[in-house]
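How a chain folds remains the central question behind the approach discussed here. In the encoding step, the backbone of a single protein was reduced to a row of integers, each denoting a local shape. We regard such an encoding as a compact summary of how the chain folds. The sequence in question and its structure tokens are set out directly beneath this paragraph:

___
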Amino acid sequence: MPKYVAFLRAINVGGHTVKMDHLRTLFEALGFANVETFIASGNVIFDARQTKTAQLEEKIEKHLHEKLGYPVTTFIRSTTELATISNYKPFAESELTDNRNVLFIAFLNSSPSKEAKANLLKLRDRFADFHTNGRELYWLRRRLDEAPPLASAPLEKVLGLQMTFRNVNTIRKIVSKYP
């Protein structure tokens, strides 16, 4: 059975708190096997017979909405896809290894349009750089003293897509746990 990771949006933020054992139970109720959570930010690892991730996302979103009472956008990647995503080099090595910089990966349900990508690149500045590859957005955040606070809402507006962000270190820890 393939192993997947569901990255959930709106779990344990904005007043919505879900205990990880409850979240595991909700996934097990859907018939998934070997369900685990990884840190309390909406990362659920599971095995499923189904191989069409769009159908899995829809099934999970419907179930979580029914059980939690609010929409939870779900982004699924296989562990194989995650390995490729975490190894991808969207920026110069010097940028990626600079201790002052942080790389975030946003999971999207579809690839952004050419127009959306062009508009995203207009947001680049000395504090942030962006790169898209398929259904992922890579956000290089330069932690300079005067850097403005992080905000993903403008990125969603520019791309016209919902997303959920994870630090690249979180992705790499998941990949190392499930090679």
